Amino acid sequence: MPDKLKIALLGCGVVGTQVARLLTEQADDLASRVGTPLELVGIAVRDLSVEREGVDPALLTTDAEALVAGADVVVEVMGGIEPPRALILRAIEHGASVVTANKALLAQDGPTLYAAADAAGVDLYFEAAVAGAIPIVRPVRESLAGDTVRRVLGIVNGTTNYVLDRMATDGLDLDQAVKEAQALGYAEADPTADVEGFDAAAKAAILASLAFHTRVSIDDVQREGITSLTADDVAWAAGTGHVIKLLAIAERNTGDDGTEGIQVRVHPALVPADHPLAGVRGAFNAVFIEAEAAGELMFYGRGAGGAPTASAVLGDVVSVARHRVLGGRGPVESSYADLPVLPAEAARTRYQVRLEVADQPGVLAQVAAVLAEHGVSIEAVRQTPAPDEHVARLLITTHAASERALAGTVEAIAGLDVVRAVVSVLRVEGA
Ligand SMILES: NC(=O)c1ccc[n+]([C@@H]2O[C@H](COP(=O)([O-])OP(=O)(O)OC[C@H]3O[C@@H](n4cnc5c(N)ncnc54)[C@H](O)[C@@H]3O)[C@@H](O)[C@H]2O)c1
Ligand SMILES: N[C@@H](CCO)C(=O)O
Ligand code: NA
């Protein structure tokens, strides 16, 4: 048994500071759990002069490469693609186990890192990369390894969930809610990665790879953010018994030509108010899984923040450290299924389409005819008066239709003389 394990920490920001704190404060407990002491041997940072609360300045270094070379376990919480990618590969080359929270890197180039870890026989763990503190990587990879996952629906971005929640509860418009999220430290000064769905898409790619034992990169994920949503959309959703959530969705599906594959997408969707995901408020995250034998499961908690994310990182550190003490490594990424990612247009969902139309005889029939021509089946139609007496508002809910059929339908409806505006088109999920 090693007399101690040397831990190198790369990055000392929001997450790194908390990882350093927990490693120090809980040193005795961690040593008992692992079976040997964990010694934090250094922390790589950019700027040595920045004061970091609770962090021993003597541990700081700007030479990340040298730090990595002498470590048993490397914890990467720098963020970004380079230098983390090169540093992780170097750590693996030196035989270190790696723990990372870096969803962007894993979603872009995970397979290279997994292959390197396999070749070296070391662990590469990343619980914090998806839904922060929520145990989701380990349950999907290990607890559900004997089951067949059909579908994963996740609220995996806390910032957008906070924004949508504020729009729903207090009628804020998007900009106001984003400003509030920034003031609370949820959203970055540049909120693009969150509001345009890039962060959720990275997590969707990682979740899909794990759930379906295949390789999905962020480029395979169909992505749409929340920036086109209005306070009116959110209010309408409530009026029809739904809440709007930004969902990361990964599901098994069959393509038009009968090919078995998966679909992975991120977009806002109407979720029925009685669905467990509808109750996920504020900046919380949740992942809802439908598996063949297990049925429905939901994992809920904090998806971000220094301490919650550090909790997931430390859990991984203990796991990989235990493996080193016992000899060997933990379960690896399985990627035997080789399921293709199907084209987005073949995805089938229910839709709500809101229109403003001329309030005159035959309008409903014309609109219904377009839907019929495109093979889109209507589930319900609701008409409400508009402030202008010559205009009516129509809310059409469809049965499941393909994205392709729906797009053609909406284009044709928009071209009808009697249609003043297509107000919104939203998918309905989880019904
Ligand atoms: N903050 C969260 O809530 C959260 C949640 C889940 C996952 N993550 C992930 O954790 C990682 C870290 O996030 P964070 O919020 O702590 O970021 P941060 O910006 O607060 O901290 C990053 C740290 O890394 C250092 N760093 C960056 N590049 C460096 C370089 N080239 N050399 C040396 N030091 C360098 C920075 O100086 C900073 O100290 C990211 O991959 C992020 O996606 C964060
Ligand atoms: N920006 C992310 C945090 C970490 O992924 C969120 O709002 O959930
Ligand atoms: Na997690």
Uncertain segments are: none
Rg, nearest Å: 24 Å
Tally of strands: 17
Whole-number tally of structural domains: 3
The unique ligands bound to this protein are:
nicotinamide-adenine-dinucleotide, L-homoserine, sodium ion
CATH topology of the largest domain: Dihydrodipicolinate Reductase, domain 2
CATH architecture of the largest domain: 2-Layer Sandwich
Give the overall average pLDDT.
96
Distance between the termini: 53 Å
| Helix/strand/pairing category | alpha/beta
What percent strand?
25-35%
- Form type: elongated
Please describe the biggest sheet, giving its number of strands, its sense, and whether it closes into a barrel: 11 strands, mixed
Level of helix content?
25-40%
Q: What name goes with the CATH superfamily of the largest domain?
A: Dihydrodipicolinate Reductase, domain 2
The tally of helices reads 14
Describe this structure in words.
One of its GO terms (biological process) is methionine biosynthetic process. Belongs to the homoserine dehydrogenase family. Its EC number is 1.1.1.3. It catalyses: L-homoserine + NAD(+) = L-aspartate 4-semialdehyde + NADH + H(+); L-homoserine + NADP(+) = L-aspartate 4-semialdehyde + NADPH + H(+). Catalyzes the conversion of L-aspartate-beta-semialdehyde (L-Asa) to L-homoserine (L-Hse), the third step in the biosynthesis of threonine and methionine from aspartate. By secondary structure, the protein is an alpha/beta fold. It folds into 3 domains: 150 residues, Rossmann fold (3-Layer(aba) Sandwich), CATH 3.40.50.720; 166 residues, Dihydrodipicolinate Reductase, domain 2 (2-Layer Sandwich), CATH 3.30.360.10; 82 residues, Alpha-Beta Plaits, CATH 3.30.70.260. Helix content is 36%, strand content 27%. The chain has 14 helices and 17 strands. The strands form 2 sheets. Strands 7, 8, 9, 10, 11, 12, 13, 14, 15, 16 and 17 form an 11-stranded mixed sheet that branches. The chain has a 6-stranded parallel sheet with strand order 3-2-1-4-5-6, with helices on both faces. Strand 14 and strand 15 form a beta hairpin. Helix 4 runs parallel beside helix 5 and helix 5 packs parallel to helix 10. The longest helix has 21 residues. Bound molecules: nicotinamide-adenine-dinucleotide, L-homoserine and sodium ion. Nicotinamide-adenine-dinucleotide binds next to helix 1.
